[in-house]
Amino acid sequence: MAQATSQRAPAACRVNADRLWHRLMALARCGATAGGGVDRQALSVEEIESWHVMIGWAGAAGLEPATDAAGNLFIALPGLDREAPPVLAGSHLDSQPGGGRFDGVYGVLAALEVLTLLAEQGVRPPMDIVCVAWMNEEGSRFAPGMMGSEAFAGVRTLEAVRAARDADGIPVAEALDALHAAFPSLRRRPLGFPLKAYVEAHIEQGPMLEAEGRVIGVVTGIQGKKTFDVVIDGERGHAGTLAMAGRRDALAAFARIAAALYSEVGGHDDAVKFTIGRLQVEPNAPSVVPERVTLRIDLRHPDNEVLDLLGQRLVALCGMHAAPCKATATRLVDAPSNGFDPALQVAIAAAAEQLGEPHMPILSAAGHDARHVAALCPSAMIFIPCRGGVSHAEHEWAEPAHVAAGADVLLRVLLPYAAREEGV
């Protein structure tokens, strides 16, 4: 690293857009799919590969990598006071099974690019500025998602995180230990260390910015979310001999429950988002009356009172329409809507103005790790458009110019923390 100084990087500087784009495309090779997307699920071999790449880039820039007991990855630009609460910026590296090249990883690489640029200019901030990649944001392999940020924020115990299993019965504990074994010399940071601030850049995962012709979204908050596992227990029977009137058909009960849920919960108002995203039928044989159906429900709404009301109604409807079977609803996630720090929102909008990038306030319809970090320190998010609003798909796309613009906004929001005189 060049000779350290506490001075601020020049206000007119820009990120290296070519390097940022190259790194996005390079990490897309870790878990690349035939359709041009990414399958890099949490704590997988593919994610471990991405860690090797990230740590290599960090080392070349003179940055310091570390991890913690929950498998979060931290890459620090060392500050003058190593004990002071650091500033964090980042997102996640894991993807959906058929995900895209930008979801999550963009925020991590934008943060790494900012740190790399500051290191190249010899900046040594008053406190550490840290790029973070949170473990298992997606929840596609291990449920629920956001395990790393939840463990960091104390929302979920490390023991509960380690006990979760994937569809093959592999516990997080085993996969997490394998991750740590792959990096035996990596320094461990304590879970939940104090933070100065947190900023997360991300693709919007929706169509609003593109539709409005805006490049930067100043995220005001994240809508609330509840997820449920519902198990419907009936009784197995022979499809050819058991009379219809005598059946305890779990799939028939599911059909009644699903119709009621889509009508009364999904149809409550225009703001509600209701999804049955996973369904398992047992024994799943063509000549056997199903004895058990397990479903996963995703329920979201920006109004916490409405969200709570709909959650209660959901549980009641499952019970009302299950007979002669039995339905048990277990709540997995209960995350209320949250707002982001007003001063950081102002800083994001001001940075966009300085860069001449059109911007707008926007509520995040998708969940992000910033939801949990916002309870620990001033936090905010920066959105950039994605083509057609498409995400969690192989054809997810962000324009190179927008990728660079979001990183430049992030740089300007973080610059005050890199100077001796702090503040946003």
Describe this structure in words.
- With 424 residues, this protein is α/β, with parallel strands linked by helices.
- The protein has two domains: 17-223 and 337-418, Zn peptidases (Aminopeptidase); 224-335, Alpha-Beta Plaits, CATH 3.30.70.
- Helices cover 32% and strands 22% of the residues.
- It contains twelve helices and 16 strands.
- It has helices at 17-27, 45-60, 105-120, 147-153, 158-163, 172-182, 208-212, 250-264, 304-320, 342-355, 370-373, 400-414, and strands at residues 64-67, 73-77, 87-92, 129-134, 187-188, 197-203, 216-222, 224-233, 237-238, 273-282, 288-289, 292-301, 326-335, 338-339, 359-364, 379-384.
- The longest helix has 17 residues, at 304-320.
- Zn(2+) 2 binds at residues 103, 138, 392.
Largest sheet: 10 strands, mixed
Tell me what portion of residues adopts beta-strand conformation. Answer: 15-25%
Mean pLDDT: 95
Count of individual domains: 2
Please trace the helix and strand order, writing H or E for each element.
Answer: HHEEEHEHHHEEHEEEHEEEHEEHEHEH
Determine the structural class based on helices, strands and strand pairing.
Answer: alpha/beta
Note poorly predicted spans.
Answer: 1-8
